Amino acid sequence: MTFGERVQAVAKKGFTERQARFLTTVMLQTGVCVPRQYARFCGIVYGAKTRKFFDKLVRLQYASVYDCRHNRARIYHVNQRALYAAIGDADSRLRKPVTLNHAIQRLMVLDAIVEDPDLVWLGTADEKAAHLLALTRIEEADLPHVSVGEGEARTVRYFPDRLPIGIHLAGRGVAVYVVTDQSLDDFRVFLERHAALVRALSAWTLRIVVPPQFPDIAQRAKQVVWNQLLTPLRTEVLDELRWYFEQLRSHPTPSRSDDLDERFYEAREAFSAPRFKALYRAWKQDGEPSLASAGSRAISRRGQRRRGAYRDSRARSPIRPSRPPGCRRVSERLSSSQLGALAPGRLGRSDVASICDSP
Question: What is the pLDDT of residues 185-206, one digit of tens each?
Answer without folding.
Answer: 999 999 999 999 999 998 899 9
